[in-house]
Design brief:
2 domains; LDH C-terminal domain-like; alpha/beta
């Protein structure tokens, strides 16, 4: 009997989709699922919803709920985690605003830039507590991570614990969306009116999904790089096997110049198509934070709508509560997608044979010219023996160099967060592509550490 522990189960979107996808599984029928969340109110909602799904879907799960992960980990086979030190939107906006005081304009401030460092630093301490407890309670379990910054979180688990880690992210589908738009005529894809791009705009999500859902069955895209900074290595028509890269290099530049303009420019200058779309791509490039040329204006880089997303989070929890109470239908959860967690769990548990488009694992040579042991994103094969990266060879050296800089910056930040090292934290910021001045790096770091002192006790020992 498989035991799955879900940490961060009260998350409005993650908890709902992960829970529904797992409990819908016929293969996992009769398994144990332990729901964990520090927020007792959110946990209660998800627990009641799980009990309703269990009954109405006749899922046969043994369900428990816990506000402390230590009470849930014993004998777990899989620990699925989306922990986040909150309030998420409030802290994210603060990460962005603090650097502006010192003349540093971060294009997005979530996974790269100074914001990426401090975001990871806040999450790493509770993360390390979980994996340390896993080493005692369930040392053979897989840690399936959804927390951002993905590369940094997975790196901390891999280098500072004995736990097996895989990071899952849906960003590759932004690549399917952009290619689908560019090759719509050849592939027979209907592009909905009003689609502007793949950026993080809730109002655009249904339009983006309409294109992606048409493109995925038609295309085989193989991408490699780092999370949110991955690149198309090959692209083929599933029906004919035709190499579509040459056609993409023609058609993408025939699109309106306002469609993903940063992706367009990088594709043009480096000859390789970046997967994530402008919203995330901008975080890792050294040309996106110049206060004089203001590239964020030129490329129309849109910030996350923190206020709207905070409101949407509250709305989603209210909606889950209505479902938990029986006042709303649960039929919509039949199509829930766990973004790969279900596929990992089913195929490891029952010795399946599953090809997954993108997962984050330590580099054992799957990308031959990126440093060994760093966290890279490639396709993977999943079977009873575990999760195995697909070898993709080398990236073009200019692209590899961009990735290497981010990998080294990320590892310095992880070392700093785990050790509480001011020196390494400063070096991490100094190497970051968003920083152009020695003094501003130190001023930003000092402000971050002071502002978030309660979340960063390791720096105040």
């Amino acid at each position: 009997m498989t035991k799955i522990t879900v940490i961060g189960a009260g998350s409005a979107s993650f908890g709902e989709n992960t829970l529904a996808a797992i409990m819908r599984s016929k293969k996992l029928r009769g398994s144990q699922i332990a729901l964990v969340d520090l927020n007792a109110q959110s946990l209660d909602i998800v627990h009641r919803l799980a009990n309703r799904l269990n009954k109405e879907w006749d899922a046969g799960f043994i369900i428990s709920a816990h506000t402390n992960h230590k009470d849930a980990l014993t004998d777990s086979n899989f620990v699925v985690s989306a922990i986040e030190v909150g309030p998420r939107e409030e802290l994210w906006k603060s990460d962005y605003d603090i650097t502006l005081k010192y003349g540093v304009h971060q294009p997005y401030a979530e996974n790269g830039g100074p914001g990426g460092f401090i975001h990871a630093a806040r999450n790493i301490m509770p993360l390390m507590e979980i994996v340390r407890d896993m080493e005692q309670a369930c040392p053979e379990a897989w840690f399936i991570n959804f927390t951002n910054p993905m590369m940094r979180i997975c790196d901390a688990v891999n280098r500072y614990s004995k736990i097996k880690v895989v990071g899952l992210c849906h960003q590759i589908y932004a690549g399917y969306g952009m290619v689908g738009v560019a090759l719509a005529k050849e592939l027979g894809i209907q592009v909905p009116e009003g689609l502007e791009g793949m950026h993080a705009d809730v109002m655009q999500h249904p339009l983006q999904h309409a294109v992606k859902s048409q493109a995925v069955p038609l295309l085989d895209i193989r991408a490699a790089g780092t999370n949110h900074f991955s690149w198309i290595v090959s692209i083929r028509d599933k029906r004919t096997g035709q190499n579509l890269y040459p056609l993409l290099k023609q058609r993408f530049f025939e699109l309106d110049e306002k469609f993903e303009p940063l992706t367009r420019r990088i594709f043009q200058d480096f000859g390789m198509f970046p997967i994530p779309g402008d919203t995330h791509l901008c975080e890792y490039l050294p040309w996106m934070s110049d206060p004089i040329t203001k590239p964020w204006e030129k490329f129309n880089i849109r910030l996350y709508d923190w206020e709207m997303m905070a409101g949407l989070r509250d709305f989603s929890l209210d909606r889950l509560n209505e479902m938990a109470n029986g006042a709303m239908s649960i039929d919509g959860l039949l199509d829930a997608d766990s973004e790969g967690a279900l596929e990992m769990i089913e195929n490891i548990t029952y010795a399946g044979n599953h090809y997954h488009l993108a997962a984050n694992l330590p580099n054992t040579g799957q990308i031959s010219n990126l440093p060994l042991g760093t966290i890279v994103e490639t396709p993977v094969m999943v079977d009873g023996a575990g999760i195995h990266p697909v070898h993709v060879g080398s990236l073009p050296e200019p692209v590899a160099e961009l990735c290497r800089r981010e990998l080294m910056t990320a590892q310095l930040g992880v070392d700093a967060a785990v050790e509480g090292s001011y020196e390494k934290a400063l070096q991490c910021l100094l190497l970051d592509p968003a920083i152009h001045d020695l003094d501003s790096a130190k001023l930003i770091l000092d402000d971050y550490l002071k502002t978030y002192r309660e979340h960063l006790p390791q720096f105040w020992k």
